[in-house]
Write a structure and sequence with these properties.
The structure holds two protein chains of two kinds.
Chain A: H1 10-21, H2 23-38, H3 45-54, H4 56-70, H5 78-93, E1 94-97, H6 110-135, H7 140-159, E2 164-167, H8 169-176, E3 178-179, E4 182-183, H9 184-202, H10 204-214, H11 216-221, H12 226-252, E5 254-255, H13 263-273, H14 285-305, H15 310-337
Helix pairs in contact in A: 2-14, 3-14, 4-9, 4-12, 4-13, 4-14, 5-6, 5-7, 5-12, 6-7, 6-12, 9-10, 10-12, 13-14, 13-15
Chain B: E1 4-15, E2 18-29, E3 33-37, H1 44-52, E4 59-64, E5 67-69, H2 74-80, E6 82-85, H3 97-101, E7 108-111, E8 114-117, H4 119-132, H5 149-163, E9 167-171, H6 179-194, E10 198-202, H7 206-212, E11 215-220, E12 223-229, H8 235-243
Parallel strand pairs in B: 3-10, 3-11, 6-9, 9-10
Antiparallel strand pairs in B: 1-2, 1-4, 4-5, 7-8, 11-12
Helix pairs in contact in B: 5-6
The chains are: A mainly alpha, B alpha/beta.
Domain ABC transporter (chain B): 6-246
Protein name (chain B): Fructose import ATP-binding protein FrcA
Pfam family, one (chain B): ABC_tran
Chain lengths: 338, 254
């Protein structure tokens, strides 16, 4: 059999590896170009801003999910955790519906307090997940599936199935105030991606998470405190989901019992499309962000074309399928390169 | 024998009703190379894991540098100065050579109070370490999954040579190496021992044991079946000890 790869010079190989590593970004650019040409009115700054804006909640949630998947585990509870955090913020700081309308003086104090509550709610559930995975040594898939169900149940219980409306204006300010054409909530998502990308790429903690995902036994033998790192990853995933919930509450100016239903699968799609391997150890957060933007770009296109929104789900499903196939394909190419 | 570095005193390990180790006692001196021999399932790997902190013994005690010693985790053993190279390689193939070399003890510098990986510094160290050992790896930034078995094992061997410590445990370290690389590996072991580091090497290959070891310890069915100086025994006598034909070759312990 002919093996063309053996004759490949180092430069072509490096170029090819670069393309493989950043494939999702090329896909994003490709999709944006195609839509801009094919769909009237797509090529506008406002549309692009909208793509970024619409992806902030999903983006933040995907960060936490990606962290845990990169360590070789799973967190299915992020969607319900976000809903619970949003409900907690909604009940405390909304003035209509089941909202208690808690007022703090000065008003801006409600921002850090509501944010801390959202993060704490998420962090606690993340800690429970992490503890069960590490200490009881149960499969993260099962444990977080259970959390996915009982946390959503808790949302229903505390809300009685009703909703909270009219979030305090001081908190909503984040969803209204714009900076360079983007609302502050979108900037929060972008900042999260930057911070966590740096943590994963540049700090020993991030390096350890990636290595744990690659070979947990080896990291344990090398003296890395695997359990501690895993619990931290789960707590982070929970707290980040809490932040996503806080953003969600701001965006909808309140919380309903079924808030955020379906987000988990979109987050999942974004993470897989972004190049994170479900086997663990492979993937970067910038890639995940590109995955999130890709989904959002496609949603926007569907809206603009006036297709029924139901099509989005079909397309997302196909995209996930394509991403998994692509992942397998990339691995084959990489093996050829090696 | 030189000053004892590690003394094992009647160490046992049970898995339920199964006695993997029935009471192991021997010692390793500073700068001494001990070859641990025994048939499959004799308990060699279990013993190594107990010393390295991967397993806890059921009973018995260990003295490390004269002090009571029991590592509850590999991290503790490592902190005490015990390095281990396992038979199934302990590398993360999804990261590059440098990351593997420094696994768990990365060089960092502070940036705004946050520890940040110092990649250039680490790369330099790895480059030097591999060059001095004569190991050639095309790029230190390639992921280990792209490297051959021999190159992978070389990373592990160079890792323990570099970080040294006080005692090195090698569980079948040459399984994937070629002839020349094995010779170099054996040289490395002698070189490490000359620095006063104790070495325990598990091997199946009699020739390697006789090439490198000062003392040969044979484990059979969870007990020490022989503990002899290399120059006072022969491969045939050792094989007899391994298979249980005779215990006559067993000299005085230590």
């Amino acid at each position: 059999m002919r093996q063309p790869d053996q004759h490949m010079n180092p430069r072509t190989r490096r170029a090819l590896e670069f393309v493989l590593d950043n494939l999702v970004w090329f896909m994003l650019v490709f999709v944006l170009v195609v839509f801009s040409i094919a769909i009237p009115n797509y090529f506008q700054l406002g549309i692009f801003a909208n793509i970024i804006e619409a992806s902030s909640v999903l983006g933040v949630m995907s960060i936490g999910l990606a962290l845990v998947i990169i360590t070789g585990h799973m967190d299915l509870s992020v969607e319900s955790v976000a809903a619970l955090s949003a409900m907690a913020v909604g009940i405390l700081f909304c003035s209509a519906g089941i909202g208690l309308g808690v007022q703090l003086h000065p008003e801006w104090l409600m921002v850090p307090v509501s944010l801390l509550i959202a993060l704490a709610v998420g962090g606690i559930i993340g800690a429970i997940n992490g503890y069960l995975v590490v200490k009881v040594k149960m499969s993260a898939f099962i444990i977080t599936l259970a959390s996915y169900i009982w946390v959503r149940g808790l949302v229903l219980v505390i809300s009685g199935g009703r909703s909270a409306q009219d979030l305090a204006p001081a908190i909503r300010w984040f969803g209204i105030q714009r900076l360079l054409g983007l609302p502050l909530t979108a900037w929060i998502a972008i900042a999260c991606f930057v911070v966590f990308s740096l943590i994963m790429a540049k700090t020993p903690f991030g390096r350890h998470l990636i290595m744990i995902g690659g070979n947990e036994t080896a990291t344990f033998r090398a003296g890395i405190r695997v359990n501690r790192n895993l619990v931290i990853a789960f707590v982070l995933a929970g707290a980040i989901a809490g932040l996503a919930g806080w953003l969600l509450a701001i965006r909808t100016s309140g919380a309903t019992a079924n808030l955020g239903v379906g987000l988990l699968f979109n987050a999942f799609a974004a993470v897989v499309i972004g190049g994170v391997s479900l086997k663990g150890g492979v993937g970067t957060l910038p890639g995940v962000y590109a995955g999130v933007l890709l989904l959002s770009a496609i949603n926007t296109a569907i809206n603009l074309m006036g297709l029924p929104a139901n099509f989005t789900q079909v397309i997302h499903g196909l995209l996930v399928l394509a991403a998994v196939l692509l992942d397998a394909f990339k691995q084959t190419i990489r093996q050829r390169l090696a | 024998m030189s000053e004892p570095l590690l003394v094992l005193d009647n160490v046992t390990k049970n898995y339920g009703a199964i006695e993997a180790l029935k009471g192991i006692s021997f010692s390793i001196g500073k700068g001494e190379v001990v070859a641990l021999l025994g048939d499959n399932g004799a308990g060699k790997s279990t013993l190594v894991k107990i010393i390295a902190g991967g397993l806890e013994p059921t009973s018995g005690r260990m003295l490390f540098e004269g002090k009571e010693f029991l590592a509850k985790s590999p991290a503790e053993a490592k902190a005490a100065g015990i390095e281990t190279v396992y038979q199934d390689l302990s590398l993360c193939t999804n990261v590059d050579v440098v990351a593997n070399f420094f696994m768990g003890r990365e060089i960092t510098r502070k940036f705004l109070g946050v520890p940040v990986l110092d990649e250039p510094a680490m790369e330099q160290v790895v480059e030097k370490a591999l060059a001095s050992a004569g190991t050639r790896i095309p790029s230190l930034r390639t992921n280990v999954e792209h490297l051959s078995g021999g190159q992978r094992q070389a990373i592990e061997l160079n890792r323990f040579v570099h970080f040294g410590g006080k005692l090195v445990l090698l569980d079948e370290p040459f399984a994937a190496l070629g002839v020349e690389q094995t010779r170099r590996g054996l040289d490395m072991i002698r070189q490490v021992a000359r620095q006063g580091i104790g070495v325990v090497i598990i091997t199946h290959i009699m020739q390697q044991a006789f090439q490198v070891a000062d003392r040969i310890v044979v484990i059979r069915q969870g007990v020490v079946a022989g503990d002899v100086a290399r120059n006072k025994t022969s491969p045939d006598a050792v094989i007899d000890m391994i298979t249980g034909e005779t215990l006559a070759g067993a000299g005085p312990a230590g």
